[in-house]
## 1
Amino acid sequence: MSPSPLRGGVRGGGVVTSAERTGETSRGGAWDAAAAVPDPEVPCVTVADLGILRSVEIIDGVAVAKVTPTYSGCPAVLAIELAVEVALRDAGFEARVERVISPAWTTDWITPEGREKLLEYGIAPPAQSSNSIRALFGETQVDCPQCGSSETERVSEFGSTACKALYRCTACREPFDYFKCI
């Protein structure tokens, strides 16, 4: 997995006073506020876990968060942008969110922590790198997040959201979502 090429948020910590809202401390606090926003469609992961929060910078006193949608038709993109803006404002920052569409987001940007959270939530994380021809156009081996069996079958190309497919485990008989490689 390769990390997001623009994921440059500085992770700071704690409460940031107005006197400290300069430099790295301010940017770190802004990153932390934005990074904690949960994805509205998959609430077990944050926008940082998914890698869609690209960066947070302080520009002329304004926290500017750059966000990349998972795909161009994602119905949650406006909700995510508004939630990031609200989180920054609640943390005491003037805020602006910018949508960045290039380079396009890929499931390779999901952090290892995000993949683990998906699995614990019952969603099979993407199995292969998005640049794999097999991942994009072939059958992908998906292990069951409930029992770990590799004896699974795709039921539908689309699951609870367009970015997930519906699978069924033939071993434990449980249905589950698989976060598709993009």
## 2
Amino acid sequence: MTEDLIVGKDGLARPRWAASNDMLRTYYDQEWGMPITSEAGLFERLSLECFQSGLSWAIILSKRESFRQAFAGFAPEQVALFTEDDFERLMNDAGIVRNRLKIRATIANAEATLMLREEGGLPDFVWSFKPEQTPAPHSFSEVPTQSPESKALAKELKKRGFKFVGPTTMYALMEAIGMVDTHLVGSHRRGSSGIWA
């Protein structure tokens, strides 16, 4: 067992970051790395990863319900119609991360998500970059921060008008939605996505 894994009172091994509080533990146990294949679900994860850039995931997760309320449940049809009044409302919403560029990017990404329906939609597009194999890290130092697939996904999304979708952010998205399994070997969640054995 690596020092990056902690065995909790329930006898389950989790990475250090997921063992630090109940919110992160619940997210790790129930959500992180599970397949997301709906457009709204993927748009939400993409948006939250965009806002997380440069911040801790704990901050974003603690504000997730406020983000959902502020961004119309991350329904791309609604977010794409946001006006300057909506932008100002978001900039004054203390419940979310008030970053001008990230708010503008989320609105632009909603518009790009709708346009992507002509190519089969956001889920099919994102999942088409699923790699042939997944990492099997034993420690945090072995977890990649980007991959050839995340670089290609970022490049193609940018071509289609998406913003704040760099290769590192896209790799984090791929981890969050189960496209790669970077649960540490020895974690109780390793292989739980149903995609990777």
## 3
Amino acid sequence: MHVEKEKIYPNCPFITRIVEIGSQTKSQLIQKLQQASISMNEYGEMLLKDEHFTISKTKYSLQTVELTVGDLGFLEGATTPQIYKKAKELNLQLCPLELGPYLRLSYLDQPEGFAGNSVKQHQAPSGSITIASEALSEDEDFPKGFYIRRINGVLWLRGYRADHLHVWNNDNHFIFCQK
């Protein structure tokens, strides 16, 4: 299917945010998440507790871009490798994994996602935003990264699993970093 070039990032609506990350220990970061009443699933906890999950010792800012898979030109959806390759071609880069918890703490007014029973298994939940990042492990049973969402007023930082063949829907939201 042909996509009009003017509808593809950067010629489409998108959301930018500046997020400060770093300069805390892992336990300080986890404590901040708890103090902010951020809920986590088992995969999110696995990512945070993994020895390969690191936090920068110095504080720095990242400018992020939130857009949909369709905004990258994939009207029929795309796999993670296709999405990441296209983002790179558009001068976007993957985010450090540590961005997930910091983004969750800085984006406390995220709109409510759909909490009904129409959630499709093996699909990103309605209202969720996936942080595009390198996976810590190739193990299929280990989570690949974080996503954030708000359901019934509760803010979540969740981990997810998806293999390289998983097709994301065109309306799934991703966060990338600007170069």
